[in-house]
Amino acid sequence: MAGEALIEMRGVNKYFGQLHVLQDINLTVGRGEVVVIIGPSGGGKSTLCRAINRLEAIESGSITLAGKPLPEEGRALAQMRADVGMVFQTFNLFAHKTVLANVMLAPVKVRKKSKDEAARRARELLDRVGLASQADKYPAQLSGGQQQRVAIARALAMDPQALLFDEPTSALDPEMINEVLEVMQQLAREGMTMVVVTHEMGFARSAANRVVFMADGRIVEDRTPEAFFTAPESDRARGFLSKILKH
């Protein structure tokens, strides 16, 4: 079971112009917990995920990490982002650097690790995501699924307290999705704190401690996967699941 609260959002509001994209969001993620956020497009899922490490500033409310408010800017913000890794839809790897160099870069620059230590750890992590043999290749030589696994290794290289995933498989071909989800399943089993925005219902069912269903900028349901998938309480969730689970 999850330990103490690692991420807490209280009364969080966010606007894009007139659009109220996050409406009074209250969410707590315990240490070691896997929270999967699902819901229709445009419901605020990605914005919520991005607000947790301040890629999106909020208008009101509070977000804390391990009891401390998110820093506004500068070095403290960079440090916090090192503690909360993020994996995006697009892999954002440096095309001109090898896979190994991509994974080593932040630990050397931000964590001030020696190159030898960073390289050793990078190789360990590439092995962990099944890519030890690809260390000297460049991103363009890899498949999308392989690139996304490199991106996960890169996030892990910072020894983060939590990992945020913003639709990590949505840009992948279907046959590559499972190789990424398997790595994420393994991280969940190892106790990594994870907030995952995804359309992959199988992952939500099998890996999540809690499923958060969002629509129209609000959290509509926040329940165990079993309770949510077998007996959703809201009409919105029932409608969403009937569309998604038909096929």
UniProtKB/TrEMBL annotation:
The cross-references to Pfam families, in alphabetical order and at most eight, read: ABC_tran
Keyword annotations of the record: Amino-acid transport, ATP-binding, Cell membrane, Membrane, Nucleotide-binding, Transport
Q: What is the official name of this protein in its record?
A: Amino acid ABC transporter ATP-binding protein
Entry-linked SUPFAM superfamilies: P-loop containing nucleoside triphosphate hydrolases
Regarding protein family, the annotation reads: Belongs to the ABC transporter superfamily.
**Which branch of life, at top level?**
Bacteria
Membrane topology, record value: Peripheral membrane protein
Q: Provide the protein's localization.
A: Cell membrane
Q: Which GO terms describe its molecular function?
A: ATP binding
Boundaries of each ABC transporter domain copy?
7-241
